[in-house]
Amino acid sequence: MTVRVRRIVKQEVDAPGLGAQIKAAREADVRSVTKLAKEVGISRNYWYQLESESVLGGVAEDTLRKIEEVLGVNMGVKFDD
Fold first, then answer.
1. CA triplet 48, 12, 34: central angle to 5 degrees?
2. Hey, where are the domains in the chain?
3. Among the four residues 2, 29, 32, 51, which has the most C-beta atoms within 10 Å?
4. Cα separation, 6 vs 35, whole angstroms
5. Rounded Cα distance, 21 and 74, in Å
6. Which residues fall within 8 angstroms of residue 73, CB to CB, at 6 or more apart?
7. How far is CA 81 from CA 11, 52, 53, 59, in A?
8. Can you say how many angstroms the Cα of residue 57 is from the centroid of all Cα atoms in its chain?
């Protein structure tokens, strides 16, 4: 039997105006913040923190991609892979 050693690489990119983009997409949607947040799997409070860009430590890419999926938009955030 062998033991695997894992290296986790953390990449971050700045996304100026992301909160405003999320808010605009939400406002164009007929669903409530509560419903959207539930579909994404985050709290309503966290959704509002994202919109106001007051999230400490940033947002996980998986969460952002889920927001894009639920709202049917592309926020344009890209990583150099």
1. 20
2. 18-71
3. 51
4. 37
5. 10
6. 21, 25
7. 10, 28, 25, 18
8. 12
DSSP state for residue 73 in the 8-state scheme: -
Token pair recorded at residue 16: 């100026």
pTM score over 0.85: yes
Which amino acid type is present at position 74? N
Q: How many residues does the chain have?
A: 81
Q: Collapse the DSSP code of 43 into the 3-class scheme (helix H, G, I; strand E, B; otherwise coil) and give the result.
A: coil
For the domain spanning 18-71, the CATH number is: 1.10.260.40
Q: Is 50 helix (H, G, I), strand (E, B) or coil?
A: helix
